[in-house]
Amino acid sequence: MHHLSNDDPGRDHPPHHPRRKPGLLANLRSSFLTGLVVIAPVGLTVWLIWTVVGWVDSFVLPFVPDAYQPETYFKRYFGEDTTINVRGVGVVFFLVFTVVIGWIAKGVIGRSLIDWAEGLVDRMPIVRSIYNGVKQIAETVFAQTETNFDKACLIQYPRPGLWAIAFVSTSAKGEIDRQVPHTERIMSVFLPTTPNPTSGFLLFVPEVDLIYLDMSVEDAAKLVISAGLVYPADRTSDTPPTPGGIPLAVEAERQRDKLDA
Length: 261
Description:
With 261 residues, the chain is an alpha+beta fold. The chain has a domain at 148-260. It has helices spanning 24-60, 70-78, 89-105, 108-121, 125-142, 144-147, 174-179, 217-225, 248-260, and strands spanning 151-156, 163-171, 186-192, 200-206, 211-212. The protein has a five-stranded antiparallel beta sheet. A hairpin with a 7-residue loop joins strand 3 (186-192) and strand 4. Helix 1 (24-60) crosses helix 3 (89-105).
């Protein structure tokens, strides 16, 4: 039986079709899509900012006295027939007003008024639910001191003898602090997963069981994301102490002695 080889002249070869160059319409379409990718984000951002600023102006300016309206100044210096729409003035008034309210709220009288108003709202069934929900969202978004992780630490997870990197957020508060049986302070700890640190576990751990790390939260996050491949440089050649003044090596030895006992 005769087998045709690759070089056999009797074997049929597919005809070779040279690749056609894209035409004028294809080039125009490609250029249009590329320009759209560049322009669309910028245009949408500018439009969104312009719309939000206009919305704030339309809401705030009616509460501003006529003597402080920008059109009043323009008419005073350029004539009564001058009409101009200065967009953004309402945003400035809103920022100044918010800063003043925040300054008052930090004082003793402001806190007393807020406590009295919140007590009044708590007695209103529907308003109470809306207010508490909006307040929690505002505190989560704007209270930076409460949303940032404080320190990176080591905890024994998922069993004693195995160590995992976690991030300390705050000390436990409210019902969690009351219901958990403890003699030491309870800390809220976020244990991230690898290599995706956006998911993980919320753990409430006694502070005595935490070993604080000297590395920054960013360096600890890199270590978690890289699955242990990217180690940060040591910040000091000495043994870094924990916030309680106990060196990490001594703290680790104390944890091992606790397990052996």
